[in-house]
Design brief:
By secondary structure, the protein is α+β, with helices and mostly antiparallel strands. The protein has 3 domains: 175 residues, Formiminotransferase, N-terminal subdomain (Formiminotransferase-cyclodeaminase, Chain B, domain 1); 154 residues, Formiminotransferase, C-terminal subdomain (Alpha-Beta Plaits, 2-Layer Sandwich); 200 residues, Formiminotetrahydrofolate cyclodeaminase monomer, up-and-down helical bundle (Four Helix Bundle (Hemerythrin (Met), subunit A)). Helix content is 51%, strand content 14%. It contains 17 helices and 13 strands. The strands form 3 sheets. Strands 1, 2, 3, 4, 5, 6 and 7 form a 7-stranded mixed β-sheet that branches. A 4-stranded antiparallel β-sheet has the order 11-12-8-13. The longest helix has 42 residues. The protein is globular and about 80 Å long. The two termini are 50 Å apart.
């Protein structure tokens, strides 16, 4: 299982595309790294670059990009709306798959050490890679920005973690670390006033605002017994924010970093901005995401907004994303393309799921071709996905049926379970073909030496076992769909009872089709104990499926 990390360096250049290309070219030269996004902002004069890969090539690409940025960006001439202290202002590593935060932090230190030793750029470590508690927060390290560095570098407490303690006038300093997903999010306001945008930001961000006597904006500051300003906490934890004016758009924005989307998800922050803006006589007109986000950020938002409408959230991920984009106005200042803004869609190799990306005619045509894959296993999984899709449709129709408004939550929950099963079965369409291809690859391995023969045999057996496990999983998933199908026959919209009936026929066909694959692939496996247990499990599913199909079809006929 490959370890994957994401790297999101922020470069202090957002206006000169030629300079940016020199930096991103360095990233793309490294094999094993995929450049996902380069989001340039003219007003901020800053570009957020996102790339992903296994740790070793990611660190190599990050080193080359930081080194190149130090050569081509002159911080002594830089200006922009966003706080910054270096040509590469910050470079976080983010765990994506099969890697811990601690491992990411260790890789961050390898990168920081190399930058410090092989370039003239001082490096500070932050977040999970911080060398001391006071350096965990990026804002603390960046306090005073680039302009404060000449004095800062002379102070013992600001000795860099790597590199020499001297002021690099051209490149400034760089902050490197490891952290969880950070969502950079800007909310658009119907004002040009930075002061009013800040009033919303102070209400929303965790740090809140300083308490003032009388006038909350101009009144004298209220201090505590230690002489420190008293703060009024903001509405959203794990959110940092300020107000600024973006000349490019002609509007003021609340610019935020959501540092923990489990504590303060995107949709909650958007809603709080709307409430706080209205309190100050303003309106939110839209918003924008800077860089990429995990798919869950938008699907969770879509569910939230549908539930506020008392509508079923059990719709496809594409529909959930669409409602989130429209509700939050994510396309107001620039087009929003989910395929380019969602991490999972960007990481997904174009060949990783070739079948489910095809249209109906393409899928039928490739199945009917002379190629042995896709075959019966993939078709069985697809038929099963159609069966649960029909039952999910009945649940969604039932949630919107006139007179059944009080049951919408129940049907929405059923539809969500149906969508999960549908998506898992669709994934199995390609998994089954990959399993078959795995066997073909194993048979094609060299067998000239005794060692090669042993390795080839072991690989054939491993691939054959996978080719048994996949259709068995399809059988289990299709059997699980029967609970939802039966529930929709009994409780669902009576006008759609035959749709649920077709769903049960699909489920039975899929179970029997997948069983044929389990049996044929079991012939080639030498592990007799595994084969015996698997065939027993599969046979039990067949018996139970046939029994339940008859029961459900009887219910369908009774309700017609």
């Amino acid at each position: 299982m490959r370890q994957l990390i994401e790297c999101v360096p922020n470069f202090s250049e957002g206006r000169d595309s030629a300079i940016l290309k020199q930096i991103t070219d360095e990233i793309e030269k490294v094999d094993g790294v995929k450049l996902l996004d380069a989001d340039a902002g003219y007003a901020t004069n800053r570009t957020v670059v996102t790339f992903v890969g296994e740790p070793e090539p990611v660190i190599e690409a990050a080193f080359r990009a930081i080194r190149k940025a130090a050569e081509v960006i002159d911080m002594s001439k830089h200006s922009g709306e966003h706080p910054r202290m270096g040509a590469t202002d910050v470079c976080p590593l983010i765990p994506i798959a099969n890697i811990s935060m601690e491992e990411c932090a260790a890789w961050a230190h390898k990168l920081g050490k190399r930058i410090g030793e092989q370039t003239n750029v001082p490096v500070y470590m932050y977040e999970a890679a911080a060398t001391r508690p006071e350096r965990q927060n990026l804002a603390t390290i960046r306090s005073g920005e680039y302009e404060a560095l000449p004095r800062k570098m002379t102070l013992p407490e600001w000795t860099p973690d790597y590199g020499k303690a001297h002021f690099n006038a051209r490149a400034g300093a760089t902050v490197i670390g490891a952290r969880d997903f950070l969502v950079a999010y800007n909310v658009n306001l119907n004002t040009t006033s930075v002061r009013r945008a800040n009033s919303v930001a102070f209400d929303v961000r965790e740090q809140g605002r300083i308490l003032r006597e009388g006038d909350p904006i101009n009144g004298p500051i209220v201090n505590d017994e230690n002489g420190e300003p008293v703060r009024i906490p903001g509405k959203c934890k794990a959110v940092k924010g300020i107000g600024w004016f973006i000349e490019e758009y002609g509007i003021a924005q609340v610019s935020m970093n959501l540092t923990n989307i489990n504590i303060s998800p995107l949709h909650m922050v958007f809603d709080e901005c709307c409430k706080c803006a209205e309190h100050h006589g303003l309106r939110v007109t839209g918003s924008e995401l800077v860089g990429l986000v995990p798919k869950k950020v938008l699907t969770d938002a879509g569910k939230y907004f549908l539930e506020k409408q008392r509508r079923s959230a059990g719709v496809s991920e594409e529909e959930l994303i669409d409602i989130a984009v429209k509700t939050m106005g994510l396309g107001e200042v620039s087009p929003f393309d989910p395929k380019k803004k969602i991490i999972e869609y960007q990481i997904e190799d174009a060949t990783s799921s070739p079948l489910i990306q095809k249209n109906l005619r393409e899928f039928a045509s490739i199945t009917a071709s002379e190629s042995p894959a896709p075959g019966g296993g993939s078709v069985a999984a697809y038929v099963g996905s159609l069966g649960i899709s029909l039952a999910t449709m009945v649940a969604n129709l039932s949630s919107h049926k006139k007179g059944w408004e009080d049951q919408w939550k129940t049907f929405s929950a059923v539809a969500e379970k149906g969508q999960q099963l549908k998506d898992e079965l669709l994934r199995m369409v390609d998994e089954d073909t990959r399993a078959f291809n795995g066997i073909m690859v194993a048979f094609g391995m060299p067998k000239n030496t005794p060692e090669e023969k042993i390795a080839r045999t072991a690989q054939i057996q491993a691939a054959t076992r996978t080719a048994i496990e996949i259709p068995l999983k399809v059988m289990e998933l299709c059997y699980a769909t029967l609970d939802i199908i039966e529930e929709m026959v009994i409780k669902g919209n009576p006008n759609s009872v035959t749709d649920a009936g077709v769903g049960v026929l699909c489920a039975r066909a899929a179970v029997h089709g997948a069983f044929l694959n389990v049996k044929i692939n079991s012939v080639g496996l030498k592990d007799a104990d595994f084969v015996e247990k698997t065939l027993k499990r599969a046979s039990d599913i067949i018996v139970q499926t046939d029994l339940r199909e008859k029961q459900i079809l009887q219910l369908v006929n009774e309700r017609m």
